[in-house]
Amino acid sequence: MTDRIVRPAEASAITGRSLASIWRDEQAGRFPQRIRIGENAVGYRLSALQTWMDSRETITAENTRVVAPGARKGRKAKNAAVSA
Q1: How far apart are CA 43 and CA 59, in angstroms?
Q2: CB atoms inside a 10 Å sphere around CB 11
Q3: What is the CA radius of gyration of the chain?
Q4: Cβ distance 50 to 6 under 8 Å?
Q5: Nearest CA to 55 among 37, 38, 74, 32?
Q6: How far from 56 is each of 15, 53, 59, 62, CA to CA, in Å?
């Protein structure tokens, strides 16, 4: 079976990353390089995307830590009344 070419929008859907994040990481060498498939068209090899995803670290309880225990999540309301 031949390797399929994936256009950037589909690569974004496959990886769950925005096009801007993909571009930024590609420029920094942290994402597979795109290939030219036409004069004005680029894509990614599906196998390269799958290899990249397989290389990502899996989140487990051992490799995570609580950043701010007990902290409330979210932003404070803009019109929060000051309690006296």
Answers
A1: 29
A2: 23
A3: 20
A4: no
A5: 32
A6: 11, 5, 9, 16
Residue entry with tokens 């799958």: 50
pLDDT of residue 74: 67
One pLDDT digit (tens) per residue for the chain, 84 residues? 568 999 999 999 999 999 999 999 999 999 999 999 999 999 999 999 999 999 988 888 888 877 777 666 666 667 766 555
From residue 59, give the alpha-carbon distance in Å to each of 62, 65, 72, 78, 79.
Answer: 8, 11, 23, 34, 37
The three-state secondary structure class of 71 is: coil
The pTM score is: 0.69
| Diameter of the chain measured on Cα atoms | 71
**What is the DSSP code (8-state) at residue 28?**
T
Neighbours of 62 (CB within 10 A): 6
